[in-house]
Amino acid sequence: MRPPPPPLSLLSLLLLLLLGGRGAPALPADSRSQLPAPRNPKIRLYNNEQVLRWEPGSLSNDTRPVVYQVQFTFLSGSRWYDTDDIGVNCMNVTKTECNFTPSSLSEGLPLFFNVSLRVRAKAQDLVSPWLTVPWFLYYWNVTVGPPENVWVTPGEGSLIVRFSSPFDIPASKATFQYYVHYWEKAGIQKVEGPFRSNSIVLNGLKPLREYCLQVRAHLIWTHYNISRPGHLSNVSCYETTMDATTRLQQVIVIAVGIFLLLSALAGACFFLVLRYKGLVKYWFHSPPSIPSQIEEYLKDPSQPILEALDKDMSPTDDAWDSVSVISFAEKDREAAPQSTLNPNSGPVCQPVG
Q1: Which of 8, 230, 273, 351 could form a disulfide bond with 217, CB atoms 3.0-4.6 angstroms apart?
Q2: pTM, two decimal places
Q3: What is the 3-state secondary structure (H, E, C) of the chain?
């Protein structure tokens, strides 16, 4: 059931009085109406976009060009006004639409008035009956899109969310409130809000965890406290950074891990050295070196290295000791006991040949 329209404000009455002399009175059914009326009217109110579209009436074999005229009125007023009064050219258009989207907040249809539209077709001197569109109130019927330019900066266990409003609105008439839907990936969704600022900080998040979020804007018509929830922004996921405590814990864990790894490597090396001591000694034993004279000869065989070696290695005066061997003749050996009594007898010395 459509809610009742808000009461007409004093500003509405003043606007009606100002436009009263410029408007066209409601026209009765024209006897010349021989064209079929347009059909299936649709009004699109998305963000600040305001567009009326319709379908042309079915024509038989009439090939004359058809144009369309659009008028508007406030509430159930008895006067209809041409769109030229609000800077919109929809008097004789060939397209089956009339775009009321304002280029600024001071143009287009009033955002806080009940408005009704009507459209008819014209072909030279022929006109169709009016097709009337039911009244609408922009702040009541508008579809609010998602916030734009959502930008997220991961922090230490937090996410900083920045964005822009879905569209511009007069600050004196309405405002936006924002809600952030967030959840840890594969977790339960939470909602924070409302916020009036376009910069939101989500605190108390777990460090080094991936969080996903969406932002929604609610349009609040402050005069009548009417709220229009908007669409959610696209899902975006970000990973929080580590805080100081987590960073210190990570440094300690890494240091302990490196120490344990080095200790294990040192123990393994010591065990291998003890187990394979002979093999290790063989691997690290230095090979015999070539004498410098031989190495020089191998580099240049033409040098008389060998002769020099012969001279260097020539025998010097051999040092020898004289050795004397004292022996007894076999006959004398038998007579030795007797000769001992003879002081003139003595041992015979024979040189060793």
Answers
A1: 230
A2: 0.60
A3: CCCCCCCCCHHHHHHHHHHHCCCEECCCCCCCECCCCCEEEEEEEECCEEEEEEECCCCCCCCCCCEEEEEEEECCCCEEEEHHHHCCCCCCECCCEEECCCCCCCCCCCCCCEEEEEEEEEECCEECCCEEEEEEEHHHHCECCCCEEEEEEEEECEEEEEEECCCCCCCCCEEEEEEEEEEECCCCCEEEEEECCCEEEECCCCCCCEEEEEEEEEEEECCCCEEEEEEECCCEEEECECCHHHHHHHHHHHHHHHHHHHHHHHHHHHHHHHHCHHHHHHHHCCCCCCCHHHHHHHHCCCCCHHHHHHHHCCCCCCCCCCCCEECCCHHHHHCHHHHCCCCCCCCCEECCC
